[in-house]
Amino acid sequence: MGLLKASRIIHATLPDLTPVGQAVMAHFADRDYEVNGEQTGPQCWEVGIHKGGTFRAIVGMKVALRIRIETIGTSTQVEASIGLLESQGISTAISMLAFWPVLVTQTWGLVKQSKLDEEAIAVAEEFLFALSKAERFCHECGASMSGDAAFCQACGTRVVQ
Questions:
Q1: Which of 22, 26, 58, 147 sits most deeply, having the most CB atoms within 10 A of its CB?
Q2: What are phi and psi for residue 86, nearest 5 degrees?
Q3: Across the chain, what does the average pLDDT equal?
């Protein structure tokens, strides 16, 4: 169940998103997060990350950052959202009704503070551009970018290298 999210449309795509999903998983595994991921459609991957200190089990639920990478036409959408995993039966369902607003908003605050959502999107974007050899575009305004530019010439936004 994704409740709060950040997303970005990336103007590049691949016929198979497996290398991108695996790169996101490897990036967070190298930082000692627990990761899992799977291909959920022909051009869609979902990755889940959690860590004991940041994402903890509360009232039988495990809270995680879920990353969805999906081809949409000639672009790829990367979405990072908070999800609840591994519910433990009826007692968890009852607890969730009472506590989910606090649990989710506090967790989303931790994610935003640590910028994990932005990091996940940036990792996916970096690998999409590296693997697709596509022309680069600014993720803010959509302007075409030269291959080595650190900032968009049209709007000044810092871009992923």
A1: 58
A2: 55, 55
A3: 75
